[in-house]
Amino acid sequence: MTPADEQRGLLIEADMTVDLPESTLRLHSEGDTLYVEAPDFGALRELRATATSDAVDWLQQRGFEGPLVIETPVLVRVRGVPVARYEPARSAGWLADRLGFGPFRVDLAGVLQATGRRLWH
To answer: What is the value of pTM for the model shown?
Structure first.
């Protein structure tokens, strides 16, 4: 552990799967980045629905910001293509704000490429 790690708080290395009702996500960390690997955009919609569940509402009503505050970069990939990124020190950007994806920055080229992979495979 470096002095920078001590200042950031808890550092967790992960390699796990998250089972959702209709799909499965893979989460893993490399360095200080968390990767979310989704088979399709439907899996991300399921994850978002889970993140806005009754349990999260209950915690927010009691003054908690949420069940988890992420202070590490997150890269979201669909079919292996980066489609969104979260960086704690950076704003989501205009496109993400308009589409309601904040705090994640949307990679429009990646979204198109991931969509194309679905159509061509």
So the answer is: 0.73
